[in-house]
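Worked Example 4.2. Consider the chain below.
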Amino acid sequence: MLGFRIAKRDKSLRARVGELILPEGRVETPVFMTVGTNATVKGLTTQQIEDTESKIVLGNTYHLFLKPGTQIIKKFEGLKNYMKWDHLMLTDSGGFQVFSLPKKKIEDEGVIFKHPETGEEIHFTPELSIQIQEILGADMIMAFDECLPYPVDYKYAEKSIDRTTQWAKRCQKTLINKKQALFGIVQGSIFEDLRKRSAEDLVKLDFEAYAIGGVSVGEGHELMMKVIEMTEPFLPYDKPRYLMGVGLPEDIIGAVERGMDMFDCVIPTRYARSGTLFNRTGRMRIDHRKYRADAYPIDTKCNCYTCQNYSRSYIHHLVKSNEILGTVLATIHNLYFYQDLMKEIRFAILENRFTRFKNEFLNNHLSKND
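Applying the procedure from the previous section yields the following structure tokens:
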């Protein structure tokens, strides 16, 4: 059950500000959703996640199916209770992870692969994906799709989108808990006619929201933007649009400009663990020696816990010393930066200055990376 209200659209672009309305809460869009693959955002407590102003956390169906397993999570009456997260949650279908496996067999019925630890043969079907996601109990869930790699042969992509549509129908028939909002996922690689067909076929099924999948798989920024442009016109204006697995600030801004509402990516947390931090003037490698005695915070205009309490010098020391706290503080900052970026994007759209904001941000952010 998902409502969506559009509050403002940019006068000359497709960028828009809206609101997701769910039984368990409301969230303004465009929104960046924090990835918590294994029922955790690495290194952070749920209170720390909340303090970054994250409103939605993602769980990973494939990984949680393997460990701890659905029976454990069912015992705790869902993933939110299990990890003590009191806000909104989205779970993916497991499609991306399954199709990333080196040895799997794809059939019209589903995908066959071996359990990475036990070697047990698993038949992962659209029905199983939905059944797992119902047990996980997220507010928003994804239809099981075939995530196409890049590049991919046109004939295979054509066959694949038809399979994804049939799987989407089976997901709809399987879902019992109507409080969970089910998203359809558009595929089609970089082929304009296939993206159009995939979108139109899914729109006929009347999902509560739609996602663009098969991006951020190596195609690069320009092709990603083209995929959005060839898909967005065929998605319902009055329903949320989710660009899956994206990404870098420049990707998010470009996608917002083209009418996207929802985003997720491991980049802010993964980069934090490698000592790469985001700020308004670009990305910094905090382990660089120039930060060894730097008394400034990571970002002088940031209100996150890390920037309000610690210097670049201290975080440099922690990261160079392989201290866990260095990763924690870096992750807090990067997640807060992303949420702050989304807030600035929403304000810019509301005030009819999105293009100016985009140009100023990108000029600063892309030109001064370490």
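DSSP finds 15 helices and 16 strands in the chain. The radius of gyration is 20 Å. Compare this with Example 4.1 before moving on.
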